[in-house]
Amino acid sequence: MKRLVLSAFAISVLFSCSSVQKHNEQISKLHDVELLRADVDKVYLQLKRHHPKLYQYTPQEVMEFKFDSLKQSIKSPMTSRDFYKKLAPVLTSVKQGHVSVRPLGKRFKRKERKALLKKKFEFYDLDFEYLDGKLWVERTIGKDSSFVGAEVLSIAGEPASELAELYKTRFASDGYNTTLYNRFVSKGFRQFYVRDKGFLDSLQVTFKTKDSVFSKLFKRVPKKEKDDSTKVKTDSIKKEKPKKLTKTEKKANRLAAKKRKKDNKKYGFISRTKEYTRSLTFIGKDSSVAYMKIRGFSNGNYKTFYEESFKKIDSANVKNFILDLRDNGGGRIAEIERLYSYLTNKEFQFITESEVNSRVPILKSIMSNTTPTGIKVLSGILSPILIVQNLLKTKRDGKLYYKFKYAKPEAPNPLNYKGKVYVLINGNSFSASSIISTNLKATNRATFVGEETGGAYNGTVAGFYKLYQLPTSRLVVRIGLMQVEAPYKQEPDGYGVKPDVEILPTVKDRQQQKDPELEWILNDIQASK
Fold first, then answer.
1. Sorting pLDDT into bands at 50, 70 and 90, what band is 435?
2. Where is the composition biased (Basic and acidic residues) (predicted)?
3. Greater confidence, 360 or 267?
4. Is residue 239 domain-resident?
5. Are residues 195 and 54 in the same domain?
6. Domain ranges, residue 329
7. Which residue has the higher pLDDT, 226 or 244?
8. Would 373 be classed as within a structural domain?
9. Are residues 274 and 415 in the same domain?
10. CA angle 196–141–268, rounded 5-degree value
11. Are residues 124 and 215 in the same domain?
């Protein structure tokens, strides 16, 4: 038995090593011209099959011309990464932000992965903002804040602003909106750079501050790097024993750990930045202003958070409520519907039935060539249940619609807030953030301050997704399967929720650590007293 286990382990290791080598060869080798052209056809075919609003913003003849031109432009063999750089800008012609493509990353053997997990790439500690045509360091993760506020002049010898402009051609907003681009390239700059260049062990970056121009070589370093100069030599002194805790102290530690775990779940803990997805604070001596920051609608126990928050708001007799949706890229429909129920005192229908291209969008999402075989088998077993659920569709005017439960009339939450509402938005307020903003804007429930949302007022194609891997280049294309929209429309189509008061932050605001949008709201509240 022991030999059998060892043999099985050896075979699995050999297979794993072979798989890693094969994967890495696939992304680095030159692919045949005709096979890459076939990949282009596959992408377009998948879009036509699954995307319910493919020609909403770009006419069919224009779309076909773009894909045909892409095919004709492939005249010599190229790697998957180079193919990605040609395909991504063409996919943006769909003008739907949820349509995207990504290249495969380098894979590592087990020992290499274990070694990499013990290190961090210093460059990833930087968060950027693209303002006034320049890339700036907005903040750093960790103790070193010396780069904050510095302009990034170049990365590995390439001008940072040119890289940012290039990366802006590789993703789309919803419709004709332009505010998403600078915001999204800021938030995703690190990811775009890695997609562009691949795996890196070090990176030379040149910065500029008021006083000087300087360079820094960012490397992969141990996550818990110790400074030798501060080490205490233990060879000549007796090592101290850890203090023995009393039963009371142990119990207190257990309770504190339990509370942290509960809070992390409720507020949605973000491990990279050590901050919460959701937070509620009160402003002013009398706590008459409630400020709720929501960084995303994707993680954590939102039901508990909103229930507790609006109980506190009700108890504090809050007169003004500020909802901050800036840089909130979206998430769960269930969460935004729940939040909206606390902000209205009328019966409401949050979204409409979603237009789809298939009677079984859930199965279409699951039965993709990127889905593990085990999940496909399980889905096959459960398919009768999923199919029955998907029969809750209506066919109207030759189109198919999916009935989300959130398309039914709902009553407001008994704890609904009745005071004045302000909503902070910017170009990175996308997807679910735009949907709840549309509902609040259309019903005149809030005053919007900031910048036009990157997500469209009239809805977005999202819900479930098809993740399709191209056969030759192995690029992964993401396609939304459902048109998700509020029961309100604006003309012209293709633009976001626009602010009642437009305020655009400047570089000077950032350098002085000012928040002009929030300051305007607080001044408006003070003036109305």
1. very high
2. 229-239
3. 267
4. no
5. no
6. 263-353+404-455+499-528
7. 244
8. no
9. yes
10. 95
11. yes
Of 343, 316, 320, 322, the closest CA to residue 529 belongs to 320
Long-range Cβ contact pairs of 262-268 (< 8 A, separation 24 or more):
264/300, 265/300, 265/301, 266/300, 266/301, 266/304, 266/305, 266/308, 267/300, 267/305, 268/295, 268/296, 268/298, 268/299, 268/300, 268/302, 268/305
Query: 346 and 286, same structural domain?
Result: yes
Higher local confidence (pLDDT), 20 or 64? 64
- Calpha distance 305→266 (Å, rounded): 6
pLDDT category, 266, cuts 50, 70, 90?
A: confident
Residue 333 is assigned to a structural domain of this protein:
yes
Phi, psi of 443 (to 5 degrees): -95, 10
Q: What is the number of structural domains in the chain?
A: 3
CATH number of residue 274's parent domain = 3.90.226.10
Nearest to 328 by CA among 419, 404, 436: 436
Look at residue 27 in the predicted model and tell me its pLDDT.
80
pLDDT of 128 > 80? The answer is yes
Q: How far apart are CA 363 and CA 74, in angstroms?
A: 34
Residues 29 and 87 in one domain: yes
What is the mean pLDDT of the segment spanning 168-197? 96
3-class SS letters over 204-230: EEEEECCCCEEEEEEEEEECCCCCHHH
Short-list 169, 180, 174, CA closest to 130: 180
Rounded distance, CA 474 to CA 469, Å? Answer: 5
- Place 184 in a pLDDT band, splitting at 50, 70 and 90: very high
Q: Does the residue 83 lie in any domain?
A: yes
- 3-state class of 421 per DSSP? strand
- Cα separation of 303 and 268, whole Å? 12
Paired tokens of 205: 């970056």
Task: Find all residues with CB under 8 Å of 406, minimum gap 6, and list them.
Answer: 333, 334, 337, 350, 351
Q: Helix or strand or coil: residue 517?
A: helix
Asked whether the beta carbons of 73 and 36 are under 8 A apart, the reply is no
For residues 152 and 241, give the distance between their C-alpha atoms in angstroms, rounded to a whole number.
Answer: 48
Q: How far apart are CA 113 and CA 352, in angstroms?
A: 46
Query: Between the CA of residue 451 and those of 330, 428, 499, what are the distances in Å?
Result: 16, 9, 6
Q: Is the confidence at residue 490, as pLDDT, over 70? A: yes
Q: What is the pLDDT of residues 351-399, one digit of tens each?
A: 999 999 886 666 667 767 776 666 655 555 555 555 555 555 567 777 8
The secondary structure element, H or E, covering residue 498 is none
Beta carbons of 424 and 522 less than 8 angstroms apart:
no
Of 96, 187, 129, residue with least CA distance to 478: 96
Structure tokens belonging to residue 449: 């301050």
